[in-house]
Structures are given as structure tokens and as C-alpha cells.
Batch of 4 targets.
Target 1
Amino acid sequence: MTTAPPLPATPPAEKLTLAVVAAGLLALLLALADADAGRQSLWFYLALALVSGGTLAWSWLKFGGAPAGVQHHNLWLRASTGRGAVAWVTGLVLTGFYVVLYWYSGDDGHGHFGPLDHLVHALDGFSQWLRARPADQWFLYGTFYTLAVLLMGGRALWKYRHSRYQLIRTASVMFFQLGFAFLIPGVLLFFQQPEFYFSYFWPLKYDYLFPGTVTSLLQNGGLGIFMVFWGAVMSLLATPVLTYFFGKRWYCSWVCGCGGLAETAGDPYRQLSDKSRAAWRWEVRLIYPILGIIVAITALLWVHFATGGTLLGQAGTVAAKWYGFAIGSVFSGVIGVGFYPIMGSRVWCRFGCPMAAYLGLLQKHFSRFRISTNGGQCISCGNCSNVCEMGIDVKQYAQRGEPIIRAACVGCGLCSTACPRGVLNLENGPRQGRYQGAQLIHADSLRILS
């Protein structure tokens, strides 16, 4: 019986930085438990400082000082990234946090936020400065989310510093999360304007085209009218046009906050995505019906609105609430992020996101985007398949020299970055040449058979 080789010892400097991160998590627990308001803030900001400094220092030691290039660092042998005990504990903690956040931390009407109350109020000063109002559980979540993207984005910048594409792409998701998904919505609230996320569009931000939301925004004057215009144009016009030229990567890998978290905080788990055909069948069975459901709900709500609210009664509103609970909360949050350490970083994007389904249909049937391959140079190392977070067995395409034109592909480009032979290339070529590699192979096969 063969045994796995022992893992290399962790250098003392790396152990020290990880100890700093652990100390930060301990300080966060103290902030959670301490009833004194002054000490809450002290523990909380100390925790953020320790976690941030420790994470960035560890990232530099692990990747910044190492030779450039994609190194797997025994990912499958480590308990944290190979579905070991550490991964399961991490998954349980993340899942538990989302459960508490969504269902046990709502404002009780007196400014109390359940188990997360002390952490929420520790951010009151920052929230007052940014939004001119006290913090709530969603501001706490947004702060944690944005910090995770920025810190793990720094890790990705060091890890993939040899790839210009990865550097720009990572900087892009960091920019959109910090600016468009965190600071701008806060500034809008500061000036008594509707909270609006300019980087999220229908059908992902499904209520942005609901009649109730549209009506409410239109009542806020010129800015509200612009928000409605922006949401409609980005969802129905700009998305098809941009996807035609660049594929779904323009959004899923460059702009979207869900994708931003997956590409940064979820990067250590990208190799865990299931590459089996059974997983692909489940992907198709889930993601397209979810898109169909939100399209149907949106259409029914508009018909209900157009008929003066007499057609559906409360059915449309109830359907929207159940969709928000089952898909917007359970799937995208609890499962989508909580299951990172077990199922990979793109569980939500792959199996549940209606925006990914919408973009995927456009990409597969109407886009110029493809990943071209050169089968003659492929050495079947499997690096490309290992790093594909969307469960595509890239190696099979590369071996046959077939272009990769899949609805699931988010164009992250890691398959190309990880390839030691330059076999894979992301292209925005003429539509008539998208399938050229496959057609040439098919013609060669027919010629050999004849």
C-alpha cells in the first residue's frame, strides 16, 4: 500500500503570521462576547488589524517571495484544501455564520441584532461616518465581505504576479467590490438617497426590475430615474452586447461581487469543483430552471401591476419572497459560500446564479469568445482541469485540440495561466471561426476513416 508523501514543514515565519491571524480571530470572539461598548470596538478593530496584517504577511511569505508561476503546494494533501478536517470545520463555521446572519440577526426594533449584536455596534462609528446612520447586520456583512475580497485579492496578486491578465482581472474585482458594492451604496445613504448597487443587475439582483422597486426609485427624482435606466439598460442591452464581444467573463470574472469573492477568498478551493458528467447534468437541471423561475416571477409581477393589482392577489409577492429565501439566501449565501471548502469556490455561480445562466446562454450561442487549444503541444499534465473552478475538464479539450465553448466558462483564464506549454488562449475572434478547431479535427477523423 502506497502512502502519501509527508507535507513539507511550514517555515517558522509563516507559522508566526498564521499565529497573528489566529490572534485576530480570538480578538473577534472577544468583541463578540464583551458587553462593554468601548472594549467591543477596541477588540473589533484590533481583530481586523491582526487578521489583515497576518493575512497579507503570510501571502507575501507564501507567494511573493517564491518563484512566479502556478504552484499547487500540495493542495490535495492539506487538511485545509483537500476536504480534510480543517476544511470541514471551516465550512461549518462559514455556514453557521450565514445561518445566524440571515435568520437570527435581524433588528428587533430596539437596535439589537441577536448573536451578532456586539459586532454590529462595534461598527457604528464607521457606519455613521460613511452612511450617516448606525450599523446593521448587512453593513457588518458588507465590511467582512469587502475585507475578504481585498485581503485575498492581495494574495492573488502575489500568487499570479507573472500573469498580466490575472493581475488586471484581480484588481478589477477588488475595485468593483470596494467602490461599487461598498462605498458608493454607503455614500448614497449618507445623502439620503436609495441604496443602490451599480455592479449588480437583473436577474442576479432580481428585484431591480420588479415593479415595486422601479416605482419606488422613480419617486426619488432624477437620480432614481437614472438608477432605473441604468438597471434596465445594463440588464437588457449592455449585457448582450458586452457578452457578444467578450463572453461572460466581462461580468463573472471582472465585475460581479459573487465572482470576486470566489476568485479571491475562494481561490484555495478552486480545485475542488466536481468535473464529473453527473455534476454537469445537475448544473443544467438547476441553473436554467432557476433562471426561468425569476423570469416568470418578474413577468407575472409586471402583469399584476399592469392590471391594477387584481390579477394575482398576493401570489406574485409570495413567490418573490420564497425565491428570495430559497435562492437569494439559502443557495447563494449559506450553500454558495459556506460550501467553498468542500465543493469549490463557484458552487453558486455554477449551479444557481440566474445571471450566470443568462450570460452562459448568450456566450454559447451568440458570443465571439472562446478558448482556443493546440492539442499538438498538450502534455496531459492536467493543470488546466485542476484549476477550473467551473468543473470543466479542460484537459479533454486540450488533448483533442478543440476550442472550449461552454456556457459555464467564466473566462477566469486560470487554465491558460496554469498551462506550462501555452496550449490554451482566451480569444474574442470572429464568430465563424469559433468552432474551427473542432471542425478540422472532425474532418481529419473522417479522412482517416475513409
Target 2
Amino acid sequence: MVLLEFSIYPLDKGESLSAYVARCVEIVHTSGLKYQCHAMGTIIEGEYDQVMEVVRKCFEALQKDCNRIECIMKLDYRKGYQDRISGKVRSIEEKLGHVVQK
């Protein structure tokens, strides 16, 4: 199973990019994959081809009306493990003895 953290946004649309980010988050949401949004990006969990397909769809959605797009990705693969989006956080919380801020 793969965790993919990414952020994708246009560089030619001014300071406020939330409409473009929302367009991509909707693609992530409709993918059916487990995901988590945070202030600087989105984490999705699935098989390699599934998560890369989501990124491709986001790119194509922005490409329609954006002349310059930046995408930053970080990928973590661990064979035989699932539910790592929350499992990794739970592991840290257990070691700390308290819940971390979300």
C-alpha cells in the first residue's frame, strides 16, 4: 500500500488558489481512496497506480485553464500494511501518551 502526499496548484492565477485546490480535492474525494487534507497538501492511500491516477486527473483538470502548474509529491510504500494514514499518527500518539493536534 502507498501513501502519497502531494500538493498541486497553478503558478499563474494570483495569490488565492483555493478554487483550484478545491477542484483537485474533489477529484481526490470522488476517487474513493482514503485521504486526509491538511493546510499544505493532501495525503491519499491506495495502490501505486490508483494514487498516481488521482494525481494525473488533478493535473489534467488544472491544465484546462492554467498555463503553469507546480506539483510536489512524496511517496511512501510499505508492503503488507494498510490504514497507514491514521495508523502512523496513532503510533506517535501512543509513544507520546497524548493526542496530537489535527
Target 3
Amino acid sequence: MAKLSTQISMLFVVVTLVFAFVPVFSVEEVEAKTLWDTCLVKITPKCALDIIDVVFGNGIISDSCCHGLVGEGKVCQDTLIKYISDRPSLITKETLYLKKRDDLWTHCVSISKTV
């Protein structure tokens, strides 16, 4: 029961972060929002936070999160990072974040191929 409560709490944190970082969606972005929602459901809350921390901070990602990220596909990762990096407070470093996103993807693909 405690594990379920922790998972629900982590999911709440991720959803809160998403709404804090993601700009209000316009009608043209309904398809992108659907993809975003699909990705959030499939990647564990801890892995989503780890991915965000690697790209926007100096975090590290576990091999299991790399496997999950690669399993979901590059589109999910690109969507997650692009929406966050488009925030006005982060846009000045968007190029850096997109490079870190691509470096993370390359790292995770290499991890997934070795196991």
C-alpha cells in the first residue's frame, strides 16, 4: 500500500511539474498534447523526473530509465523536453537543452544495445 501511495505521489509531482513548465496549449497543439499525455502515462514518474533533471540540471539517469526511454521512443523524449524548454524562462538556453536531450538519447540507445 505504501508503494502505491508513493507512486501516486510521484505521478502527482510529475503532473504538477508539467503544468508548471508547459505553456497553455492552443487548439493547433491538441495532437501534441495527446502525445504528451500518452508519454507521461508510459514513462514512470521517477524516470520522467530523472530525464528532466539530466537535461535541465546535472542529474544522472539509471540504466532502467534509459531502457524505458528508448522503449517509448525519441518522439516522447523530444516532446517532453521541447515543451519544457519552450518556457520563456528557459528559452534562452533552449539550444543547450536540446543538445543535452540528444546526448541523453544517444547515451540511452547505447545502454539499451549493450544489454
Target 4
Amino acid sequence: MMGNRLNRRDFLWRSALIGCSAAASPLVTPMSFAAAPWDNRLVVLILRGALDGLDALRPVGDPNFATLRPDRGAGTGVALDGAWELHPALAPLVPLWRAGELGFVNATSTPYRDKRSHFDGQDILEAGTTGVGQARDGWLNRMLQAVPGIEAETTYSIGRGDMLLTTGAAPVSNWSPDAALSLSPQTERLLEMVTHDDPLFRDALGEALVLSGLVAPGLAGEILQMAEMMEMAEGGAMDSGGVMDRGDMQDARKALAEAAKAARSAGGYDALARFAAQKLRAEARIATFSINGWDTHAAQHRTLQGPLESLASVLLTLRDDLGPAVWGKTAVVAMTEFGRTARLNGTGGSDHGTAGLMIYAGGALRGQQVTGGWPGLAEADLYARRDLLPLSDVRAHAAGVMQGLFGLDRAVLEGQVFPGLDMSGAARLVL
């Protein structure tokens, strides 16, 4: 058993380092486990910040895609077939695709519509309900409540504790890495400037910096995104009066990039995947954690690269560390709170949208397919003339995976696990 105590300094640091994108990218990534009376394994990855599915899996067979994304047309990604190309950052996953161990569900979403808040979208995604605030436990925990004899594996928990996804009456153990890196004076100054106009965040950050010079490894993606935004802002660099000039901006951007590199070298998401695999090879049967950094409002051609690389590395790490026998009994499901706009915005990013992409992998699943249907990208086909139109409820696909893996009754899934769900639209994903 691991055993470091959570002290006040670490708690305040992890509590204080929040900002306008805190809901999109929680800085502490907890991991939850549950042992169960079956041999199959389930890993649920929450992609916080709203993955742009149109970029991760490019619909190059749709003639309107090249109009909406002129720099993402056919030939710019890794071809899966004539209709779909992977983002180049996902190229390492092509062997999984060819082995039938990787697939996608397109044009899917939770029941959340129109307001496009990360807080609300993630609440609905993890609660598994049709509206905000309808449940204070998560769908994965409610699934465990329906199975007699569930026991929590004894592990160690720090930071945020349970995700909403696993919160509830069923016993679940938690673990979070205790790795960190030191902030340079330049990065401290940059963080002060980022929060300059928000007294609440500025004061909390100031206290945290006094108490601790630490940053969690999961912050690497967010640091890189901040560096990209600093680079974009460099042309209109601010002057004096306590704000950065062009030289300060360049120094801060360099410091951020160095901090990101150090954070990634500390282990990052691969460390979570290795720990998950270790537990899943033993008594644990379910694991869940988050991958952050998907809120790509600007310079998406660069800011999406890192999170996609992290996702690809996590999937391959799980496969390699689980080994062929356990991987063959494993399903990995990656879900996000909503998709992004079909058109890029003026800064080369994409804004909050509606339908998105569910990514799945594992030897227990039916891969080498893109399922879920395709609504089209003509303006008249878009939701509110801006977003990919939802054709299915992502909860139905998650329920179908659990039904196939664990033999759960449909009535339990539709009534208890996902209240109000109709599973008739679930894709057949389990072998």
C-alpha cells in the first residue's frame, strides 16, 4: 500500500491552481478502482475539455469537410479507409486499428444541449443523467451498486478524491500520483499575470505560490496551451504598468515550455496507465481517470497535438502493460462532455459544440469500424447550423459495453445506471 500523508501545503496548492478553464482541465487527476465478480475489465477515460472529434477522426469522405477545415482535408492525416483519416498524433494507434482493437462512435453526445458549459457538460457525462444536478452519484458507481459482492481495492487517495463518475454508495478506492515539479521565477510571474484581472484567483494563486512551489504533472498540457496563447499574443504584447512587454512574453513562453517538458518527464498520464494496468492484472476490474487539455479554442493545429499524443500513449501503455491475455478481456472507452464547432474560429481553434466522438479500444471490443452514423456537414445538416448533429446518446454505447462485458440486465442499465436511457441505439461493440 502507498502511504504519503496529504499535508496542508499540497492541499492548498491543488485547491488554488484554478482559473477560467478549471472545469475543462482539473489539475489533479484521481484514479478510481473497483474489484468485481467477473473476469472482464473496463477502463473509462474522461477527456476533459471537449475533444474535437472532427479533427481526431477526420471525415475526409464528406465533401464539406475540406470547406469547413481547409487545412485538414484528405491526405493531411493517416488514412484508415477512403472516408476517414486519423490525426497524425494518433498514428501510433494504427496497429490497434488493423488488429481490430480500436474503433470510434461518431456523432454521439450526452443529452446536454446548447448552453455548452464545461461544468454542466461534465456533470451530465459523469452523473449519466439527462439534466444538470439530477444525481449526486455517478453512473459507474450505480452500476457497481447493482452487482452483489462488490469490494473496493485498498489504495491511497490524495487530491480531489472521487470523480463524480465513481461517487456513490458502492465502495471504490482512489489513488493519485504525488509527483510534482518546481516553478521557475519566470513561470511564477507569468501565472501572476494570467490571473492579474481576477482577484479571487490571483489571491489564491499567490497564497499557493508562497506555500508551495509545486505543479502536478497533469498540468503539462495546460502549460503548453498557455504557452501557445502567449505566442499568439506576442504580436500585441502589452507594455509596462505591471504587464508584460515583448521580451517578458518570450521569456515566459520559454519558461512555460520548459515547465511542460519537465512535467511530462515526471511520468504524466503514462504513469496513471501503468498503475491502472498493475491493478487490473490483479484484483481490480474497473479503472477510470481523466486526460485533460482538450479545450482547444486557439491554434488547434498545435494545441491538440499534445493531448492526442497522451491519449495514444495511454492506450498503448495499457495494452503493453496488461499483456495479451488481460488485454483480450479489456474494454477501454474514452468519452468527452461535448464536441466542438464544425468551423474553426478566427484564432484557428474551435469552440464548444454538441455532438462529438467516442473512442474505444481493447481486445474485448469489436474494432476496425466507425459506427454511429453520419449526419453530414452541409450547413443545413449541422445542429443549429454550427455543430455536428447528435445521432445517438453516448450513454447508450457505454451501457452496451457494460451489458456485453458484465451481463447486466437492460432494465437495470436503463432504469438504475442511466435513468431515462433508451438503449435501442447502442452500437454493438463487445465481441
